[in-house]
Amino acid sequence: MTKTRVDMLFGFLGSGKTTLAARILKEYGAKRRLALIVNEFGDVGVDGEILKGNDIDLIQLSSGCLCCTLKGSLEAAVIELADKTDVDHIIVEATGVAEPEEMLSSFNEPEFKERFDLGPLVTVVDSYKYLKIREMLGPFYEAQIEKSDYVILNKLDMGDAGTMEEVRADIEDLNPDALIRFAERCDVDLEEVLDGRPSEALERWAETHDGHDAHGHDQDHDHHDHHHGGRHAPAESFVIDLDGDIDRAALEALYAEAPERLWRSKGFVRIGGAAHLVQVAMGSVEITPTEPRERYYLVFIGDKLDRGWFEDRLAAAQGAA
What we know:
This protein is α/β, with parallel strands linked by helices. It folds into 2 domains: 4-209, Rossmann fold; 236-319, 2-Layer Sandwich (Hypothetical Protein Yjia, Chain: A,domain 2). The protein has 12 helices and 13 strands. Helix 4 crosses helix 10 and helix 11 runs antiparallel to helix 12. It is globular, with a radius of gyration of 19 Å.
């Protein structure tokens, strides 16, 4: 029985996972029988919209996280894609607040091991903001690195050599077994990702869990819902729909004044009658032209965000247009 290859992409919000997925689709979408599963934390997906149009099967899972509330959905989606005769390689882009622990449990189950080969777990790191994010999130953030086989220290162009070396040393201390690659816009050797060694992280996980699943009935398990403390990110998300144009300067001012608890924002807006894609990660704002669409909205992800604050400022930004 020919097994289906699965590659999983991790990384905190805004690290560059979607950029990596887009590169894979662009360079290998026509050469391999690829399929893509995109998981986004929240009710509306943006990354799936960005990645559409590559002539591949794409399943978008929203309103939860693959490592907890959508774990069953991940398993069903992987099986659905593997059952297609024209798919032999599945890429999974996990949400930025996913913890690899429970996703590894799925691929350690006998029925999955018979059908799937898990490639190296890839974690994309925003190397420019790594030290700040690690200080803010602690063990949750570290887990994405500790469970990885392949770490991409992305956004090399944004930091100085001293900081990059400090980050590299820190990553090696957390996970001495991982392959580490520096990159700008995830410009790594994609064959290392797609044809790399089988996941040793899965083997290490299986050894420590003695064959039981992550909800193992013979062991304690640290489950999470992203709203509590401990090792997991207290993430929440909401969507604000937009009617009409928005003033660019006012929108940029909103993000400049937003609290540090806003980790990620993304969506589609109209500026001067033209559609634009908005990507905000830990204070960095990128607004670029895109194709028109029927719905315009912004997604906000963070910790204890005041929705009313954002609604009021967006209303003012629309009024200024």
